[in-house]
Amino acid sequence: MTAPVSSVLPATRALTPVSKVLRLCLHALLFGLLALAAGRAVTDSAPRAGWVIAACAVLAAVYAGGVRAPAVHSSPRAGALWLFGLGAAWAALLVVSPDGLWIAFPLYFLELHLLRLRWGVTAVAVTACAAIGGFLAHSSSVTPGAFLGPLLGGAVAVATVLGYQALYRESERRRELIEELITTRAELAAAERGAGILAERERLAREIHDTLAQGLSSIQLLLRAAERALPEGAPARPHIARAREAAQENLAEARRFVRALTPPDLEHGSLAAALERLCAGVPGPRVRFSLTGSPRVLPTPYEVALLRIAQSALANVVRHARAGRAEITLTFMDASVTLDVVDDGHGFDPSSVASGSDDGGFGLPAMRSRAETLGGLFTVESDPGQGTAVAVTLPLPLENLERVEDAAHAHHPDAVEAL
After folding, report:
1. What is the pLDDT of residue 330?
2. CB under 8 Å to 280, separation ≥6 — which residues?
3. What confidence tens digit (pLDDT) does each residue in 370-403 have?
């Protein structure tokens, strides 16, 4: 029957400065009216002055006790009992003094604050009727003011409380919206920082691989060729051997740097394992991963590019294709590696996709750019209602051939000539 007091009359610690002022004004109004009623009874030498003072004191004590009681601010039942006690004390004051009529106005606000709207308005109507009846019991004449005063006071109280509650709810909605915006802004900033860190890691890995690692590998090959061209016992052979060893050590160090800058998805396994985890975590369509050919160790930029293209393609499947099934296939061939992402979704017209039109920057243009940066081929086949097939083919890098040459030279130095 009653609403939680905290929802309409917040606890003191949760009150805004305006709410605190209104609450203090309500306290001052009630105690001031009680003091005025008791003072008039004394100054006018009313026959029941003692009873009036006693009734005012009881009403003040009940009110003060309820204001200081924690249960009234936390329990709807306790708040309703407190209002019942105030009403009984006020009825006693009405019986002994017509000035008790004034107390009806602060009671209106209390009833509207502590009770639900329907019961609060009902309580205000009952209080107004009681005030009118008390005044008529002490008055020898009936005037329109005896009816209009309590009724208008009740109407003003209802309008004031309803307006305040509407403003309070609007203020709370705005506060929640501001907090949500602040939280969203912080999350976006964190996501942007994370994306920036990952992008910088990938850029550094690509730069180290394409410059230092490739340069050191070329130096090692040239030194090896120079070493083979020198006759046995030549004074320069030991220096070339030490230079080749230094190049080999620095090449290994550069490769360690590239591995250290590997994205988190590739840190704990191969590209195939990362793609399999990616398929398992996609919400919506059933996604299957398959591996064809003999897996080979690819440089970090190649693995990163293939993983990011697979992530972007699956994101498009989830957001746009409305597919029921999708499949990712990673194929290793003699001179290339191919990634295919196929779905049975609605499909689209590839010619209608403008460059950079996909939201988020991870659409078809971004996938094509990744593939072409590594000298690969990117194709999209789709028709409305026929699903979509995305394929990227990357040529195996020269580094793989260098590793084969290193292994062959380590076991059969003479076989290097055949390479």
Report:
1. 94
2. 287
3. 888 888 999 999 888 888 999 999 998 655 444 4
265 pLDDT band, cuts 50/70/90, is low
What is the DSSP code string of 170-210? HHHHHHHHHHHHHHHHHHHHHHHHHHHHHHHHHHHHHHIII
Show contacts of 318-324: CB within 8 Å, 24+ apart: 318/282, 318/283, 318/284, 318/285, 320/345, 320/346, 320/348, 321/285, 321/345, 321/346, 321/347, 321/387, 321/388, 322/346, 323/284, 323/285, 323/387, 324/285, 324/286
DSSP string, 263-325: -HHHHTS-HHHHHHHHHHT--SSEEEEEEES---PPPHHHHHHHHHHHHHHHHHIIIII--SE
Half-sphere exposure of 152 (CA within 13 A, CB side): 6
Most confident by average pLDDT, 37-41, 98-102, 271-275: 271-275
pTM of structure: 0.40
Reading the block at residue 288, the tokens are 């299957």
Identify which of 376, 391, 356 has the alpha carbon closest to the alpha carbon of residue 301.
376
CB 145 within 8 A of CB 132: no
Task: Note whether 385 and 344 are within 8 A (CB).
Answer: no
The answer to whether 321 touches 388, Cβ cutoff 8 Å, is yes
Mean pLDDT of the chain: 77
Find the range with the poorest average confidence among 7-21, 101-115, 163-177, 360-374: 7-21
Q: Which residues contact 272 (CB under 8 A, 6 or more apart)?
A: 289, 291, 295, 330
pLDDT at 70: 77
Which amino acid, residue 63? Y
